[in-house]
Design brief:
Elements lengths: L1 H8 L15 H10 L6 H4 L22 E4 L6 H4 L4 E4 L16 E7 L2 E2 L14 E5 L4 E4 L6 H16 L3 E5 L11 H21 L4 E5 L5 H4 L5 E5 L3 E4 L4 E4 L2 H17 L4 E6 L5 H13 L3 E5 L11 E3 L3 E6 L11 H12 L3 E6 L13 E7 L8 H14 L3 E5 L7 H7 L1 E3 L9 E5 L19 E3 L4 E8 L2 E8 L3 E5 L4 E4 L4 E4 L3 H8 L7 E2 L3 E2 L2 E9 L15 H10 L6 E5 L1 H4 L9 H12 L4 E5 L17 H4 L25 H16 L6 E5 L8 H9 L3 E3 L20 E3 L5 E3 L6 H4 L13 H7 L9 E6 L6 H15 L3 E3 L2 H13 L1 E5 L2 E8 L6 E4 L4 E2 L7 E7 L2 E6 L3 E7 L9 E5 L2 E8 L2 E7 L5 E5 L5 E4 L2 E2 L2 E3 L5 E4 L11 E6 L1
Parallel strand pairs: 1-2, 2-3, 3-7, 7-8, 8-9, 9-12, 12-13, 15-16, 15-17, 17-18, 18-24, 29-30, 29-36, 29-37, 30-31, 31-32, 32-33
Antiparallel strand pairs: 4-6, 5-6, 10-11, 14-38, 19-21, 20-22, 22-23, 23-24, 25-26, 27-40, 28-29, 34-35, 38-39, 39-44, 40-43, 41-44, 42-43, 45-48, 46-47, 47-53, 48-52, 49-50, 49-53, 51-52
Helix pairs in contact: 1-2, 5-6, 14-16
GO molecular function, one term: hydrolase activity
Keywords: Hydrolase
InterPro entries: Aldolase_TIM (IPR013785), GH (IPR017853), GH114_TIM-barrel (IPR004352), Glyco_hydro/deAcase_b/a-brl (IPR011330), UCP029570 (IPR016925)
Length: 980
């Protein structure tokens, strides 16, 4: 009876290939224990007060590991990387070597005491080693006393996982032997065998980190082999038999806390409690984690299937937003409203965007641990699949995923919809002109609401909602926009107003504020791709169009020569240049010019501050026609060439060429690498041509070819079209492995009316640069143009004007590929806050994006910050500078009493930052006029490479240190030591 009670109290481990719960024994033994009187372990342990606190007041060390468990088949690496270690189910095929997560280790779940036939090593296991069955989990209990068992386990279980890259193991079923061992001697023999297994693992792999799932009986013998000990259900458990959540009794908790004290105080091991809450109830997980942490135990609260991102010492914030939209099948996703209008404000708020078509199969799962919300943009209401959408929306609301509707609901406005959305149906209709009854400050952002009675919907928010725009016609009143307890809505035409006569649009609602409130987005440090170390980034990239064109004024003959002499040799900053092979190469349009053109190309590619790009082979203008059926009627024609040429053509009409995506991408890359690239340089990026709307397969092929991609997006905001609708997002996810990165700004073709004039029009880019910097910094500075800008004096003069303006700003020039890497890092960066301390944050990224934007009160507390080199104010908030993309810091609402020195600004990359009391040391280097400005350093001594630095001291207690540096393919770093 004693054994049955202990097994019931113990919550064992995951079985087989299921994504099941760790807690399993309660359901297995429920029938056996319900009717049998027994002495429980809790009765053997000293009783405590009803609080179950066991007198423990210890806190969890800040250095204790953050460990997560995730047994789903597709671990969300982007979010889980916030943890120090993650236990996964290796039989789902997860390969840790495929992911760049230097701060996160991946541990494999392994069962020691039992095996299921589905495990790969089961077939090699001598069946005489199997002692009994666990019918509930269809598993067999392994005899731990077999002399060859330890070596077998290491060779067949641990070694294959170690070879795959796993460096830690979660040892489960450490007391399954109790199912078959019925006396003390048998139990002791089984325990001794298990001890031999654990020691064999560490003998073969001394660096392996082992987490025990309980194993309390053998810990006295092997605690020195353990990295940590885990157990389940300190406060909230899961009853597998009854399929329900259960509160843990005070007596059970007291017994567990007795084990905790021994492990923590005698063995000095981290102890993790794994508790369970419904996956949609993040408040439950958060509260339970706080309670566990208060006991001095590392918490991890998740769902019973361990298939969601749980709450541990940290809570990872979801950074995905799903945009559900009805898209015209004759168009590409690039021109959809979700991409054109909604994605940009979401990117600015720190969210990566995914897209789904409302007229197709709706996403089956939108879990709240990964998605911050859903935005629905519908142009036609009701849509075709009303029942499917209604059911889908209802499930999202049930799961706690907030939804924002823009333009239309997509559902009939009737009683059932009103009930689902907790809205009031109002009687009547708008028979006359509409007037504004009330209007929130976020309405009338770029233009005042233009009431349209034909769009009136008979709904009002209930008492738990907030009207943003209430309109009336006679006695008929309705809410055209509102915030609700499930999200919010802005109906047509009060979201984006289309000004068709001038081909422009305006936001009527302030989109950033609306989305923030409707989706209840929390304040968080926002990954920012526009800046680094407080300076606005600047990148230059040039498409190869017109490389064969002749200049229309005396001097160099070809456009490339003009730009080489007048621009690239003058402005020695990081620059990305490309050519179109079909324009330059011998197999292209101008084979007789090839020797001359290739010579110019080699000369420009040899410049030390130039990186290489390709602009394809034949310059497709209409990418939808590169893949039959890719986008509507235009694609039905399939690949071909319009002999007329120009932007209406499919591609350059190259004699004898049969279109091939592989030739366009890999072929042009190989041509440049083999014919034009200087030693030590290779093509790094493909710059999309034509309409810059490549299909998914083409984007994926660039990644498969080992190059980045850039172009697309239409950021053309100017004084004559001053709308955020003219600011493109960071890029567009076109499918798995097919993310297209947009150019931050548009090229001179747009500013010169498709190169029809005025040819000085590119100087209006300056307006765009200004409007994307204030009041919010949406974009870095991007000077993006074509080779044909070198053919006309007016265009060349405008280009130089733009360069001069940009370099007169506080910029930090970088390569285009470095910007693309930041965008990719933006998508996968993990942002987490510490449980119980909403002001302390943990950030994990790839190290390419090294700037965060904080838009609320407070500044980083530098004295105890890790991975933060400094901060400064700039457009849109406080910009926090990171060392290598991983950081832990507290945002203090009040200024620090002690004021340690830190980096306020730097036109340089910073690495290896270290603080030792009042001293700083780091390395810095940049491509163009690099410098570092130190705050609180007026009385400090500064050395560069061991020598006293020449510094400029300002009245605000800052010190500027100028460094040497020049644009090249690599950065030259200099060591800086600061003693205060």
């Amino acid at each position: 009876m004693w054994v049955l009670s202990r097994l019931q109290r113990r919550t064992g481990g995951k079985r087989g290939n299921t994504a099941g719960t760790i807690a399993r024994w309660a359901g297995l033994l429920l029938a056996a224990t319900v009717s049998m009187p027994c002495v429980t372990l809790a009765q053997q342990a000293p009783a405590t007060t009803g609080s179950g606190a066991s007198g423990v007041t210890a806190s969890v060390s800040v250095n204790a590991p953050n460990i997560a468990w995730f047994y789903g088949d597709k671990p969300p690496v982007a979010q889980l990387r916030a943890f120090d270690a993650v236990v996964v189910e290796p039989d789902h095929g997860f390969d840790p070597s495929q992911f760049k997560t230097p701060k996160t280790q991946w541990y494999a779940y392994v069962s020691v005491g039992e095996v299921t036939p589905q495990r790969s090593w089961y077939k090699d296991l001598p069946k005489t080693w199997l002692l009994g069955r666990n019918e509930a989990w269809a598993s067999r209990v392994v005899d731990q006393t077999q002399p060859e068992w330890p070596a077998f386990y290491v060779e067949h279980v641990i070694k294959p996982l170690w070879d795959k890259g796993y460096r830690g193991f979660f040892l489960d079923t450490l007391d399954s032997y109790q199912l078959v061992a019925k006396d003390d001697a048998s139990r002791a023999a089984q325990e001794a065998g298990m001890v031999r297994v654990i020691r064999a693992i560490k003998a073969r792999y001394p660096d392996a980190k082992l987490i025990f799932n309980r194993g309390f009986e053998i810990l006295p013998q092997v605690h020195d082999q353990a990295y940590a000990v885990a157990f389940e259900s300190l406060y909230r458990g899961w009853d597998q038999g009854a399929k329900q959540y259960k509160e843990v009794s005070d007596a059970d908790r007291a017994w567990l806390m007795g084990q905790v004290r021994k492990i923590r105080d005698e063995y000095h091991l981290p102890v993790i409690a794994i508790d369970y809450c419904p996956p949609a109830d993040r408040a439950c997980a958060r509260d339970t984690a706080k309670r566990i942490k208060a006991q001095g135990v590392v918490p991890y609260v998740t769902d019973p299937d361990l298939s969601t991102i749980g709450v541990g010492r940290i809570e990872v914030l979801p950074r995905k937003v799903l945009i559900l939209q009805d898209r015209d099948p004759r168009t590409t996703i690039d021109t959809s409203e979700g991409v054109r209008f909604v994605a940009t404000p979401l990117n600015f708020l720190g969210y990566d965007v995914e897209y789904a078509d409302i007229n197709k199969t709706l996403p089956a799962s939108v879990p709240p641990d990964r998605y911050a919300g859903v935005v629905v943009w519908v142009n036609t209401s009701p849509i075709k699949q009303v029942a499917a959408l209604s059911s889908w929306v209802r499930q999202r609301i049930h799961d706690g995923v907030r939804i924002a509707f823009l333009n239309q609901f997509g559902l009939p406005v009737d009683g059932s919809m009103a009930d689902m959305f907790k809205l009031q149906l109002v009687r009547g209709r708008a028979n006359g002109p509409l007037s504004v009854v009330s209007q929130d400050r976020m309405m009338g952002f770029e233009m005042a609401p233009q009431p349209e009675r034909r769009e009136a919907q008979p709904i009002k928010v209930s008492a738990n909602g907030q009207s943003l725009l209430r309109l009336k016609s006679g006695n008929f009143e309705f809410d055209a926009a509102a915030i609700t307890d499930w999200g919010g809505y802005v109906l047509n035409p009060y979201a984006v107003f289309s000004m068709d006569t001038v081909e422009q649009a305006r936001w009527v609602v302030q989109p950033i504020e609306f989305l923030r409130r409707a989706l209840a987005l929390p304040d968080m440090p926002i990954p920012d791709v526009t800046s680094e170390n407080g300076r606005r980034l600047m990148l230059v990239h040039v498409d190869g169009d017109g490389f064969a064109s002749r200049a229309e004024f005396p001097g160099p003959e070809y456009s490339g020569e003009v730009l080489l002499q007048d621009v690239w040799e003058k402005y020695r900053i990081p620059t990305t240049l490309s050519v179109i092979e079909g324009e330059v190469g011998a197999s292209g349009l101008y084979p007789k010019l090839t020797p001359r053109l290739e010579a110019i190309a080699r000369q420009m590619f040899a410049l030390p501050y130039v990186e290489l790009g390709t602009h394809t082979y034949s310059h497709p203008f209409d990418w939808s026609r590169t893949v039959p059926g890719a986008a509507g009627d235009r694609a039905k024609e399939g690949p071909g060439a319009d002999k007329g040429g120009g932007d209406t053509a499919f591609a350059l009409s190259i004699p004898g060429y049969k279109f091939s995506l592989d030739r366009e991408i890999s072929g042009s890359i190989n041509y440049i690498n083999e014919r034009l690239a200087p030693p030590g340089k290779r093509v790094k990026i493909l710059q999309w041509s034509g309409d810059c709307q490549p299909p998914e397969i083409a984007v994926r092929m660039t990644w498969d070819a080992g190059v980045l991609n850039l172009n697309g997006g239409d950021t053309t905001i100017t004084r004559s079209s001053p709308s955020w609708t003219e600011i493109a997002p960071l890029g567009i996810d076109k499918g798995p492995g097919a993310y297209q990165v947009f150019a931050p700004n548009q090229n001179e073709n747009v500013y010169t009316n498709d190169w029809t004039g005025p040819f000085y029009g590119f100087d209006r880019l300056i307006e765009t640069l200004q409007l994307t910097d204030t009041p919010y910094r949406f974009k870095p500075i991007n000077i993006y143009y074509h080779m044909y800008s070198g053919t006309k004096l007016a265009s060349l003069k405008a280009l130089k004007k733009v360069y001069d303006y940009a370099l007169a700003q506080p910029v930090f020039p970088i390569y285009s590929t470095e910007y693309v890497a930041k965008v990719l890092d933006f998508r996968s960066m993990a942002i987490a806050r510490e449980v119980g301390d909403d002001n302390t944050w943990v950030v994990r990224g790839d190290g390419d994006l090294r700037e965060l934007r904080w838009m609320a009160r407070g500044t980083p507390r530098m004295a105890d910050a890790r991975g933060v080199v400094g901060y400064d104010k700039a457009a849109g908030g406080i910009y926090i500078h990171l060392d290598d993309g991983a950081a832990r810091f507290t945002l203090a609402p009040e200024a620090e009493s002690a004021k340690p020195a830190y980096i306020a600004e730097a036109a340089a990359f910073v690495r290896n930052f270290a603080r030792n009391g009042n001293a700083l040391s780091f390395e810095a280097g940049g491509y163009y006029k690099p410098f570092v400005r130190l705050a609180n350093a007026g009385a400090c001594r500064v050395k560069v490479n061991g020598n006293p630095a020449g510094t400029a001291r300002a009245q605000d207690n800052t010190v500027r240190v100028d460094l040497t540096g020049a644009a090249a393919q690599t950065v030259t770093y200099q060591r800086i030591d600061v003693v205060c």
